[in-house]
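ok so I'm stuck.
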Amino acid sequence: MKPSMFYGKRVSAQPHVRTPPEDSEDSCLSDSAGSDEECIHKPGDEESSSESDRSSSDEEYFPKSGDGESSSKSDRSSSEEEVQNQDAGGASSDGECVPKPGDEESNRSSSDDEVASTSVQNARKRRNKEKVAWKPVKQTPSSAKNVPVWQGALPDSDSVRLPIDYFRQFFDTELLALIVNQSNLYSTQENPNHALRLDQKELEQFIGTVLYMSVIRLPRSRIYWSNACRVQQVADVMPRDRWEEIKHFIHFNDNTAPNNSDRLFKIRPLIDSLLPKFQALPQHQMLSIDEQMVPFKGRSVLKQYIPKKPYKWGYKIFVLCDTTGLVHSFDVYAGKSDPPAGSQDIGASGNVVLKLAQVIEGSVNHLLYFDNWFSSLDLFVALANMGIPALGTVRQNRLPGCSFSNDKMLKKKGRGTFEEEQAVVDRVEIRAVKWFDNRGVIVASTFASAQPVSFTERWDRKQRRKVSVECPSIITLYNKFMGGVDALDALIAYYRIHIRSKKYYHRFFFHFVDMVVVNGWLLYRRDCDKMNVPRKKQKDLLAFKLSIAQALCMQGKDLSAKKRGRPSSDVTREFQKKQRRGPTKAIPTQDVRADAVGHWPQIGSVRQRCKFPKCTGHTSMKCTKCDVHLCLNKNKNCFCAFHE
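replied:
not stuck anymore, here's the structure
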């Protein structure tokens, strides 16, 4: 038998040539990082890309605004883009979605995907066929565009509330009751013979202990109750086994209810309760949209991987913030971004912006900032039709027909060189500016321009001194007002809740608690500024969080009822033994002694023997209700032991 008959027909070997895509996102962009290696800058280094270094480091700090650095946000976002291989027209995420066997996304019918991809391709083809006419802008003072003046104002504050009141503005009684009911229901479903019996006060104490744990960091949760490292703020509030039981059974939705293939089904009631409260907050003029990573390394189909983030593994949330980090809206990434009702599909990243921008009032000139993962001409046009001026970095391949000089040509002209072009797309004027600092960066806007040009200082390695570099106005605005979500990340990272759990909804719940605390602190700072309270008298984030934790653990709670275990001395049994020996003054029953009502210490005129068993002391202190003498001093506290 011939070998060809046994092995099959041999095909002539031909080299496989891979043709590069016409509109590839992996092309070397002018504003993208060249490699995935971490670049460590020294003070005074020429390549001072502050926020690029921030995104690849583990340090947590506030981003400085208004420094006019060109590569700050664009380098970070574009370095993530090299891994993502996605664009605004069809990308659903800038991270790699970790697949899981049996994922419902893989079993979904391809009809919806085909319709979505067809609409995106039609939008791209339409934009390419139009051949947008870009014209260079002559740099004169008259070419400057006026930044819209804000027509709104923040409401005045009548008073400064307590920190716990800001927290309960978001975690109100309705939300706490929902968590209590669902947790008790889940406990009954798991074990009908053992009920959880969780109430709202105990749930508040659980949240308070979790806040204490975020401030007092220990490697394991059980160490807070250990003899070696006991933390009384946690151990005195709740027993260890009860705390772990609440953590195990805490739940937010009924597992038996239909989920309609919702990946966020287990936390959907929590999101539906918090989101309207965030959206109802008064908004500042300057708003920004960016992504936020929730650290998580467990098994979940929602988990994302972004190598340039400080926390590379976790869940991704798109957040709408102001410049201070105050959250006004958010959208948890769950695999597919559909356009909001009544809006055109402009791609996954653009749909996210349109969805978050629905809460922005379009008649008072709110200004919206975002990075180049979201930017596209269709997005600028859609926001302009909504009455929202926008500004953001943009990739070169998302500006069809716009031909800027490459980085080599701009480098020959020197740092600070820039070019500006304008175009009218669907009766919306868009300005695009390419500025060269350490590398080229492109920024587009519907309200800003290159003029007026300011100057910023940069370190020159060759001259070994700082030099003044021209910086267009559009770059200054972007660097000044884009860092809202970064400020939020820095505030959360200072005292993040690190409670380990394999359940993904635990990680979301603890993250939302952190987000609510930061939002409450920012509202507290806003009210203090309105009331002209000096900064020295304002609580910092640590003091604000500790105040909330203390109120949740102790306000309106009876901590004496939480003690477990066998008492050190049985008062009733010892009293009966004493009665057998001779006449003894009667004492109240156990129910009366432990009712915690009306038992007040009072100094009597006569000293008598302490009525607590096995105590031989004499005291003039007695209980007003029980009418028995009990020791109460710095050495003995028979008064509390008698009423347990």
